[in-house]
Amino acid sequence: MQSEAPMLSALHAALFGEGDGLTEAITKVEQGADVHEIWIDGGCTYTLLWLAASAVLNGHQGGLALATLAVAKGVNVNAAVGSGDGRMATPLLLAASAVALGMEGALALVKTLVEHGADVNAVKKGKRGEDCTSLRLAASAWRDGVDDAREERVRDVRDLVRFLVSNGARLATGEIAEWQHHVDDARH
Predict the structure, then answer these.
(1) pTM for this structure?
(2) Residue 170 domain-assigned?
(3) CA quadruple 92, 128, 2, 9: dihedral positive or negative?
(4) Averaging pLDDT over each range in 59-63, 79-83, 93-97, 178-182, which range is the top one?
(5) What is the count of structural domains for the chain?
(6) Has residue 1 been placed in a domain?
(7) Around Cβ 119, how many Cβ atoms within 10 Å?
(8) What's the whole-number average pLDDT of the chain?
(9) Do 117 and 77 touch, CB atoms closer than 8 A?
(10) Does residue 61 fall inside a structural domain?
């Protein structure tokens, strides 16, 4: 089933290499398009902000600009998007993943989302059914990236951990034993 949401379907196409949906979406939003549009395709639900955060995660130019514009237009920064397998993710979780991967603009997106009310303690289910928070994603990136040759990525991950903690982020109960020492290490 696919709902009518031409701007989002064009943006989705751009994320998968078909067309210039990011530029088109930015132009449409600037011209007053509905930023609260929801698109359903193949059991997945998409929002403008989620797709923009996905663009940042996938290294597409314009993703941060579109996300910032959508937030300025009042989108729900906590709208979780579901996949066909029942897992949910918020734009903040996508942005934290993007920081972990060293994507340009990802830390700025995290900060924009949190400054506009994103829940720093939102939990999604991981691929194996485990709880996953943005702080756990950051701790995992810290653990995996401390030997990374790219100093900027290491700095961004450390800044992500510090920023999330300073804004009240905490690990989910099931994450504490495995990840707290990585959080503590990254904070210092």
Answers:
(1) 0.86
(2) yes
(3) positive
(4) 93-97
(5) 1
(6) no
(7) 18
(8) 82
(9) yes
(10) yes
